[in-house]
Design a protein that fits this description.
The chain has 300 residues and is mainly α. Helices cover 84% and strands 0% of the residues. α1 (2-30) packs antiparallel against α4 (71-93), α3 packs across α5 and α4 (71-93) packs antiparallel against α5.
């Protein structure tokens, strides 16, 4: 009786959390940017709020992904995924191990999706950053203000950079502090070229200098880095494809073997050393993937 009550309570909490997460997501998705700007000065929490290391990484992931999600809504989505992932195996199969793995998998799925969106968004911004900085440099050299330069970028560019500079342009018109606007842009555009540009603008406001020349040089640097990045991706394409083929090929081979000869794989689960060998094999696969990823991840 107690177990039934706990199952019903867990299912109710999971359903309520999922509905609340969906409601917050729809609220953030369909709220007009003008309304959000009028309601608060910055879209995300200020930097002086103290976070732990994991909290800081999660907040940074949400900011850099560009999704119309608040931190609270994203947290509820992750929690709802964990509750649903753990509740389904527990309710349907009464499997505690499956419930534990389901909680981990259910929480990781939203994080992996947000990470993929963040990776795709950063890739697009890297592609368009040289042209964006060149537009800003030309506008500043022509005597326009930084506010007007953001408007030019919003009209000329496309993709996530257009959205970010368009919102920065609106914040300039509302009288927000340039330091806060650039700080927000630097947090939502995780590119070293733009962070150098934001720092240069802040220094220029206090000490002066040739901002147009510096921005043009940053544009050339971003273009050179993009060429190096393309060359590196072309040179390492074979290694990345080999690592991907080894991991995916082993999974496909294991699935085919489990379908054709299930008795052969059952030995790994019935023998005393079977689970240990499977754990070692899975661990080595994960270590190999992380090692290849770390070797190919070059900071330049």
């Amino acid at each position: 009786m107690l177990q039934t009550i706990l199952v019903i309570a867990a299912a109710s909490i999971a359903a309520a959390t999922a509905m609340l997460a969906v409601g917050l997501f729809l609220r953030d998705l369909f709220t007009k940017p003008e309304d959000k700007t009028a309601r608060r000065r910055l879209e995300f929490l200020p930097e002086e709020v103290e976070y732990g290391s994991l909290d800081r990484m999660f907040v940074r992931l949400i900011e850099e992904s560009g999704l119309p999600l608040s931190v609270a809504a994203a947290t509820l989505i992750v929690v709802a995924g964990g509750l649903l992932g753990g509740g389904i195996p527990f309710v349907l199969f009464d499997n505690y191990l499956g419930a534990a793995l389901g909680v981990i998998g259910g929480m990781m799925l939203p994080i992996c999706y947000i990470s993929f969106i963040r990776w795709r968004r950063v890739s697009i911004m890297q592609k368009h950053m040289p042209e964006t900085l060149q537009i800003v440099a030309d506008a500043v050299r022509a005597g326009h203000t930084l506010d007007e330069a953001c408007g030019f970028v919003a009209r000329e560019m496309s993709g996530p950079l257009r959205d970010e500079f368009d919102q920065a342009h609106r914040q300039f018109q509302l009288g927000h502090s340039p330091v806060n606007i650039l700080d927000r842009l630097a947090r939502r555009i995780p590119l070293s070229e733009f962070r150098i540009f934001a720092t240069a603008v802040m220094v220029h406001r206090k000490a002066g200098g040739n901002l147009a020349l510096l921005t043009e040089r940053l544009s050339h640097t971003a273009r050179d880095r993009q060429e190096v990045r393309g060359h590196l991706m072309a040179v390492t394409a074979g290694s990345r494809l080999s690592a991907f083929g080894m991991v995916v090929g082993s999974m496909i081979a294991l699935s085919v073997l489990a379908w054709l000869e299930p008795e052969y794989l059952s030995i790994f689960f019935t023998h005393n050393l079977g689970p240990t060998l499977l754990t070692i094999a899975a661990t080595l696969q994960i270590v190999g993937v992380l090692w290849v990823w770390r070797v190919l991840r070059v900071n330049y």
